[in-house]
Every structure is written in C-alpha cells, then in structure tokens.
TrEMBL record:
Keyword Magnesium: no
GO MF terms, alphabetically ordered: oxidoreductase activity
The protein, known as: Retinol dehydrogenase 13
Lineage, uppermost ranks: Eukaryota, Metazoa, Ecdysozoa, Nematoda, Chromadorea
InterPro entries named among the record's database cross-references: NAD(P)-bd_dom_sf, SDR_fam
Native organism: Caenorhabditis elegans
SUPFAM superfamilies (UniProt xref): NAD(P)-binding Rossmann-fold domains
Keywords per UniProt: Oxidoreductase
Span of the signal peptide: none
Keyword Oxidoreductase carried by entry: yes
Pfam families (alphabetical): adh_short
C-alpha cells in the first residue's frame, strides 16, 4: 500500500512538473556557465580614476558603468536621453554606494552635442581634472534609413563619426595629462564576415538598393575598427593606449528597431535562436571590456583586438590596409567638420590657438601650448 502511494506520488502531475522545472533550471545554469566563458574578475581599486562611458543607460554600457562604480571610480555617463540616464544613474548609485556617477548629455549623432559635451568637461563646474579611460560603447541599428541634421545617415554618424569627433575634440586634453589613458572601442567579429569599406556609398544613398539595416551596421562597425587601428598607430609612443574589445553575442536592445523585433512571433523565434547561439548576459559580456580598460596586464598594450575570452584576436586584411584607413580618416575629418568644431570649441573656451581650415576642411593648428619643435607638435599629432 505504501509502495503504491509512493509511486502515485512520484508520478503525480505536481511531482512531474517540479522535476521537469528542476531539470530545466539546472540545465539552463549549466548552459549559462559554459557560455559565460572563463571566469574573470577585476580586482583593481579604481579610486581617484575617471572614466567616460558612452551609451551607458542600457546593455554593456550600463554594466560597464556599474562595474567601474563598484570599484570606486568616478564615472561619466555620456548619454543621449538625459531622463533615462538619471534613472539608471540612481540605480547604479544605490547598488554601488558610489555617488561619483554623473549624467552628461552627449548625442553621438549630433556633432554640436558632442562639442558641447567636451566643452563642459574642459572648463567650468563640470571640468574634469583627469580622464583615465574612454569606452566607446554607444551604437545603433535601424530598419529604415534616417539622417541627422547634417544629412548623414544616423547609423554611420552614431557608430563611427560621433566617436571619431568625440576622440578628436578630447585629444589635446588627454595628451596634456601626466597619467596614462586607455581608449576602448567595442566591436564584433561580424566585421570579418564579407565586409569591406564602401566609401562610394558611405551615406547609404544608393537609390537602386534596398536599405539593409544589418549590413549598414556591419559597415559602420568596420569603419569604427579601421579608425581604432589607425588611431592606435598615430598615438603610439604617447600616454594614450587604444584597444578594441569584442564582448561576443550579448543580450541587448540594439536590434529593437529592426523588423524582426516588431512582430511577437518573430521576436520570440529570434530569442530562441540567439539563446541557442550562445547569447551572453551583460554582466558576463562586460568582462573583456574591463580587461581592456583597467586590467594591469593590458596597461602597456596598444592596438590590440581582444575577443570575448580576453585573448588577442588578429585584425583582418581590410583593417590592415593602411591606405583604406587613411582614406577613411580624411573622409571622417571632412564629414564631422572636425576643424570647425575644434576652432569653435577653443574660441568658446578662451584658449589661445590659431586654427586654419584648408580647402578640404582639414585643420592645421599652432597651439600656444605646443612644444618648441615648431610646426606640428605632440599636441596636434591627431591631424597628421
């Protein structure tokens, strides 16, 4: 009798349901641990250091800001949506008990917004005495073509040109510092998948071709990688080190505007596919970013591409093409109007600098704080 009751208990719907739930829950954790990669934790105390993180209101950007705050760093959240930033900032402060987390508006598709952001960090009540690292995380992907107020397609403006201009406007400040600086660009191995630079249609205006948001995103990330590599070359032998980190496939809202995310069924099918392909949670995906930004093992490294397991990854042939990198660099100087923004910023900051704009919009500078070598100095090597 007792045996029969035991069997009935084990085969009851409740028992079977709880057993199935336990197996599924255990299986998920086994899967999650294998997808998380090798264990890593940054043990550095970052007190006294300052980091700028773009796109810090969600995804890896938010995770990066919180991890830096946990380690006592001062964090500048450079975000497009200030209201959302304030809400996220509050949660980070509550979770980390670090009040040195600040919201600063910076819309990477709006070049005037970028200049205003840098001006505020350079002089006045928001001035930073030092910057130890910049994380270029902000990115977007959209299903339909849209342009910013300068007529530039928003994906390329946000994912590459905005970061280009932000770095260019900050460079004099970074070079003048006695402390080392690390600039980390987030990217993906999708740039190795049938991807090449197409400057002939850089603004995605080809009327005979349907706008493909994913392909445009790929090309914008390739442009960012080309810039990362070229910047590391130009800043070698300075106090600035440039690295690129691939966090791997990560749960985020990056593709929220794509067609596949707007329909309920397709959205869930994409989630299942992403789950099977090893999508990582942001708290795991942030590891290679922290490794590139703060780890002692990368303190002297420059020009590295770090994969999700924090190993060095080779640059592909397109990125190693120095002529393509230089051509993109010159196009980026022109499209962002770097010279005009640099001149206006220095005038508004009251700095003594004579800036001339050539016919192709390339700026040349003779700064009052330049070295004694004459002509181009270490303060202006960005413009080589």
């Amino acid at each position: 009798m007792a045996g029969r009751r035991l069997i009935q208990g084990l085969t009851s719907p409740w028992s079977v349901g709880f057993s199935a739930f336990g197996l599924a829950y255990g299986g998920y954790h086994v899967w999650d641990s294998t997808q998380s990669g090798t264990k890593y934790d940054l043990h550095e105390d970052l007190a006294g250091k300052t980091y700028i993180v773009t796109g810090a209101t969600s995804g890896i950007g938010q995770a990066t800001a919180e991890e830096l705050a946990k380690r006592n760093a001062r964090v500048i959240m450079a975000c497009r949506n200030r209201e959302k930033c304030v809400q996220v900032r509050r949660d980070i402060v509550l979770n980390t008990r670090n009040k040195q987390v600040y919201c600063r508006q910076c819309d990477l598709e709006d070049f005037d917004s970028i200049r205003t952001f840098v001006q505020k960090l350079s002089k006045g009540k928001f001035e930073l005495d030092r910057i130890d690292g910049i994380v270029h995380n902000a990115a977007m992907m959209q299903s339909e073509r849209a342009v910013n107020k300068d007529g530039i397609e928003k994906t390329i403006a946000t994912n590459h040109l905005g970061s280009f201009l932000l770095t260019g406007l900050l460079l004099d400040k970074l070079l003048a510092q006695p402390n080392p600086v690390r600039i980390v660009f987030l990217n993906s191995n999708i740039i190795d998948r049938k991807c090449d630079l197409n400057l002939a249609d850089f603004n995605s205006e080809n009327a005979g071709k349907k706008f493909d948001g994913y392909e445009i995103y790929k090309h914008s990330k390739l442009a960012s990688a080309l810039f990362t590599k070229e910047l590391s070359e130009r800043l070698s032998d300075t106090n600035i080190h440039v690295l690129m980190a691939d966090p791997g496939r990560t749960k985020s809202n990056l593709s929220a505007q794509m067609d596949g995310q707007t329909f309920f069924l397709s959205r869930w099918l994409l989630k299942i596919v992403s789950f099977g392909m090893g999508e990582r949670r942001t708290e795991k995906a942030v590891r290679p970013v922290l490794f590139a930004l703060c780890d002692p093992d990368t303190s002297d490294e420059n020009g590295l591409f770090i994969d999700r397991e924090r190993h060095q990854q080779p640059w592909n042939d397109v990125i190693m093409d120095a002529a393509k990198r230089e051509k993109l660099w010159n196009v980026s100087v022109t499209w962002t109007r770097l010279g005009e923004h640099l001149k206006k910023m220095k005038e508004e900051l009251g700095e003594a600098a004579a800036i001339q704009i050539s016919e192709n919009n390339t700026p040349t500078i003779e700064s009052a704080t330049a070295g004694s070598g004459g002509g181009r100095s270490w303060k202006t090597l960005w413009l080589w």
